[in-house]
Every structure is written in structure tokens, then in C-alpha cells.
Amino acid sequence: MEHLEHLRVSFGKTLEDMQTGYQAELKKREEEIQVLKSKVKNEIRLQWDVTNWKKCTQGMYTQSKKQEIGGLTWFLGLYGNGDIPDAKGYISLYLFLDTPMEKGSTVQTKLRFSIVNRINIASSVQRDVTATYPTHTGQGWGERKLVRSSAINDALGFVLEDSVKVEVEITFLKFTYAL
């Protein structure tokens, strides 16, 4: 009987030591995560000069160069005359995630799409969207009817030398990682 009691106490102490070690390691990892989070900008702006604007408004799809942000690759896609028949006559603008993510991993974002007015910045076209990546129906989020294509012209200050400036401000709200 004494032998069993000794084993129980011995295993209890071993288990207690393991729990203490686990808690210390967990605290250390949580501190490392907080340090990493403090180093990561949660807001970024992608800028893109869309060239050959006239061609774009005739129905051509174009996309920006891919850019890596936070280990993920992103790009903008623009349809100058809508991406579906219902959006014809409008600019459709999307932010695409080009990096495959693990099943169960997500990135929640707040996006502000802008078409910049080069004469009067206050007259720029802006739309806000909250988006979670990856999407279930594709890889992009955006505005199907951002603005009428005809409203983006040189007389109003949007087009300069057949080029339009497009921006998206990305605010990273939450990252969820699959384990």
C-alpha cells in the first residue's frame, strides 16, 4: 500500500512539473506573438496607375502587379466596363488574394477602394468593403459598380495621359490560422 502511495505522489509531482513547464512555455509563446503583432502594420495602401485607360473602358480586364504583404500575395483587378452584363457601364474593382491558404485559415479585412481625382483629392471616388479571405466564390472582394465608367474622365480630373490612379487601403482586422 505504501508503495502505491509513493507512486501516486511521485506521478502527481511529475504531472505538476509538466503543467508548470507547459504554462511557462505557453506564456513565452504568447509574449512572442504579441511582439510579432506589434511589428506588423495592420494598415497598408496599394497604389496602381492603370495605363491605357481608353482600352480599359472598352471592356478590357486588367490587373496590377502582385505584391507581397505579410507573407500573402495580393493584386488588384479592374474591369473598365463591368465584370458582368448587369454592371455594364460601370467600373468593377476587386482586391484578389493570390496565396492559397490552409483550410480553416482566414484573413478579415476592411477595404477602402479609391479612384483618385488628380485635380481635387476630395472628389476622389471611394467605397468601403469588409471582406474575409479566402472567399467562397472566388478569390477577390470589391465593388461591382464602383462608379460609372463615363464619370472617370480627364475633364473631371481622373485621367492624366490615358492613366488612372487606383488605390486600396487594407486594414487587417483579424487573422485566423488553422492548427
What is the architecture of the largest domain at the second tier of CATH?
Sandwich
pLDDT under 50 segments (min length 5)? none
Count of alpha and pi helical runs: 2
Q: What percentage of residues falls in helices of 4 or more residues?
A: 10-25%
CATH superfamily of the largest domain: Apoptosis, Tumor Necrosis Factor Receptor Associated Protein 2, Chain A
CATH class of the largest domain: Mainly Beta
Radius of gyration: 25 Å
CATH topology of the largest domain: Apoptosis, Tumor Necrosis Factor Receptor Associated Protein 2, Chain A
Span between termini:
44 Å
Give the helix/strand class: alpha+beta
**Rounded mean pLDDT score:** 87
Described by the principal axes of the CA atoms, the overall outline is elongated
Beta-strand percentage range: 35-45%
Pattern of helices and strands: HEHEEEEEEEEE
The counted number of beta strands is 10
Largest sheet: 5 strands, antiparallel
What is the count of distinct domains? 2
Task: Summarize this structure as a short list of keywords or feature phrases.
alpha+beta; 24% helix; 179 residues; five-stranded antiparallel sheet; 2 helices; elongated; Apoptosis, Tumor Necrosis Factor Receptor Associated Protein 2, Chain A; 2 domains; 10 strands
Folded structure, characterized:
The strands form two sheets. Strands 1, 6, 7, 9 and 10 form a five-stranded antiparallel sheet that branches. With 179 residues, this protein is an alpha+beta fold. A hairpin with a 2-residue loop joins strand 3 and strand 4. The two termini are 44 Å apart. Helix content is 24%, strand content 42%. The protein has two domains: 1-39; 43-176, Apoptosis, Tumor Necrosis Factor Receptor Associated Protein 2, Chain A (Sandwich).
